[in-house]
């Protein structure tokens, strides 16, 4: 039995609880949507998840652009911001007042503000046997609590709405999952998912039995970061993009080997230099995003996640590390043109990570889907 069919069998055993108690949620890993609907009847959700968000211009750009667009059904576009409050832009300093105001604006517009720790610390730094450094579990509790405190007291968030988490640098460890599960977060979105590819990926799942994609992975094997059981904690994978065939020769030349065209699903990994990235230009980046969406729409319609960093799109950001797309205007154009492309489809919606988890608990077919039904009520 191949891997795809095996996961389809497993899904029959999956049970989704719609209870308010997050700890009662359970779903096995499966490529089958939570409602068991025909693939073509599933709403295609796209999650723009922006990390750090240390620049006012970058945040206001994406907020303004999304506010200027709407879905075919007239509903608003929304996204998730996973920010830091005590790193390169300290929210407690007077000069960063406008950055706090930008986060308030995002929250009041219905976007999600998630936790990315207060100081953007490496939870795991360095490979095993190379002087690896790990911060303690108590330290993880502290930097998670600090940021949640700042969201509540500086932004004015309802603490019940702080439900999403992403580990800085995607450098997760089992201690991270223990902490955020203990703190009552609904979901994490730190584990990359590249198996099977877009259109065949597993849907979000709860980590009652860990995360099978981490077993034997490069990160786990080189950093000693096996994952235990974390009942009720959802994993919204950081899904990899799939480059079209036309880019394979280019990617092979960069990698020095035959490559499968998969790209870790963040802007940084499209634009930075190898080994982290692929030095894509504007047209190549758009081709990758459009092709990934095409495969999703033709396949099982797992949520498409796009990791970004809003500060990269500000004119004063130093983009020289992105050799083939050094212009902030070109970087903004990638996102803007992709959003406009996706909005041509009747059954595509830009949503938050929290809305995805709401949907996992209460799935409906696309003809009945209204993203506003999956928002928090204030």
UniProtKB/TrEMBL annotation:
InterPro entries reported in the protein's UniProt record: CE4, Glyco_hydro/deAcase_b/a-brl
Domain of life of the native organism: Bacteria
SUPFAM superfamilies associated with the record: Glycoside hydrolase/deacetylase
GO BP annotation list: carbohydrate metabolic process
Listed name of the protein: Polysaccharide deacetylase
Organism: Alkalitalea saponilacus
